[in-house]
Amino acid sequence: MTARITPKTARGGFVLVEPKMGREKKVITFQYNPDTLTRTLRPQTADNPGDRLESLRLKGPAQETYKFDAEFDAADQLDQPDRYRIVAEHGLHPILAALEMSFSPTLKQLTGENDDARLGLIDIAPVQAPLTLLVLGTKRVLPVRITEFSVTEEAFDTALNPIRAKVSVGAQVLSVDDLGFDHRGGQLYLRHQTRRELFADLVTDSLGAVGLPSLPGV
Question: What pTM does this model have?
């Protein structure tokens, strides 16, 4: 009897990248891939929809958002030798903190801003966050901005460390409108758009598929 080989499922997650050098700063892997994922695309149409000449014009890439839940369970990580000590001692605090730091200024950045303010520097530039990539398989690697983030901690150990949690995430895809064509994130967006166009080209139905022998009036 031939043993059945179960293919390894790719795991999604976030990759934080240093924007200028493109170096990987941190990889945050989902323990379980989301069961469902909601994508919303909002077309950028012309500002004056009443103008007939503008009816079919697009101002730029559609604004795309993702919403999903990521679940984590410390008990299911205790059989992994590389994670046992950390999980046994801290529960899910480390993974939750890593997710939260993807959109939070660091202590160094905060104290630097405070020092500049004390020196009377009025024009203080906002701190720069790492480039956040949402990775959902090799075909979806997206530069995103976290827009919503909520954590539901569902169970705790004896030290009140969270040991089971659900993280609800909302993310906006950053396009070349947001980052520019020369930015690393902008280049990743263009690859995403290229893949979308290649997928769309695979659809080759004819008019007969929708019951039309030809286009009416043409």
Answer: 0.84
